[in-house]
Design goal:
Shape: rod-shaped
Distance between the termini: 212 Å
Strand order of the largest sheet: 1-9-8-3-4-5
Helix content: 25-40%
Largest sheet: 6 strands, mixed
Radius of gyration: 49 Å
Number of strands: 16
Number of helices: 4
Order of helices and strands: HHEEEEEEEEEEEEEEEEHH
Structural class: alpha+beta
Length: 292
């Protein structure tokens, strides 16, 4: 029996190096288990920004979990009050609180709790969070929905005959460019609803017209126009030309007058008569003697 106890309990001591490696492995395994437990209890949170053009539909995915007991969508729009959409597996029922008819489940919530907004409006912009409850914990998926508003493009000629490109009420602000080079700086005007109007004037000269290009996250558009000087600008141009002609004529008359004056003065200096001697002025002398 003694030899049996000796064979079972008396083993070769573990080396310090193997002990440190074993302890390191235990610590790593413990850290992994704790991290997994925290993730399972608190849930994994993801944040994603999505954008959709106003009037279109938007689908927000919430991945289903095995043995899901509850799924809830919590919506906090920028305009209006919050709403929620929920599903309970134990009662096999759905619940809707303060949500419009355009907000609903995309599929059967017990199979896939994906969410859909039909005909998105500017009021739908905001945060959307899906919470799925299972035995292991709660899992969250969060979105921030940005609603894009395409601008209204207009291209016209102003009173001076310059092309003006206008991208009205876009969200975010549109970018305006011209096919030909232009030195004009676009001007922006913000509105209370969050949209922005951008106006750009084409200041370069073009006889064949020009093209305005509007770039936006919701799409790109272009228009062309050929502007001609208006009657007022033509009348002003005629006045400027007439005034310039009159000034030129007056200048020429002044030069001619100065030249004539200088020439006449030079001629008088050249042909001025010389004064006669005093003897010639007194008259001819008589050679005969006076009578006695």
């Amino acid at each position: 029996m003694g030899s049996s106890q000796h064979g079972g309990w008396c083993k070769k001591p573990t080396s310090p190096t193997n002990a440190r490696a074993t302890l390191k492995g235990v610590r790593k395994a413990t850290y992994t288990i704790v991290l997994f437990t925290i993730t399972a209890v608190t849930g994994a949170t993801g944040h994603k920004r999505v954008s959709v053009t106003v009037g279109n539909s938007s689908v927000l995915i919430c991945s289903p979990k095995p043995n899901m007991t509850m799924a809830t969508w919590k919506i906090n729009p920028k305009a209006g009050g919050p709403c929620s959409l929920g599903y309970r597996a134990d009662q096999n029922m759905t619940d809707r609180t303060n949500c419009s008819e355009s907000i609903n489940w995309k599929f059967r919530p017990d199979q896939d709790p994906t969410f859909e907004i039909q005909q998105v409006g500017r009021a739908h912009e905001g945060s959307y969070t899906c919470e799925v409850v299972v035995a292991e914990g709660n899992f969250h998926t969060s979105y921030y929905l940005t609603v894009l508003v395409p601008p209204r493009l207009t291209l016209y000629c102003d009173d001076q005959g310059n092309p003006v490109c206008k991208a009205a009420a876009g969200k975010p602000a549109a970018q305006i460019s011209w096919v030909l080079e232009n030195n004009s700086t676009p001007k922006e005007e913000g509105h209370d609803d969050g949209t922005v109007t951008v106006v750009s004037k084409f200041t370069a000269y073009s006889t064949n017209g020009t093209t305005c290009i509007v770039s936006h996250l919701a799409g790109n558009w272009s228009k062309s126009i050929a502007c001609h000087p208006t009657k007022s600008s033509t009348r002003f141009l005629h006045c400027v030309i007439s005034l310039a002609s009159l000034l030129s004529l007056l200048f020429l008359l002044a030069v001619l007058h100065l030249y004539t004056f200088w020439d006449s003065r030079t001629m008088r200096k050249q042909y001025k008569p010389r004064p006669l001697p005093s003897a010639e002025l007194s008259g001819p002398r008589s050679n005969s003697a006076p009578e006695q």
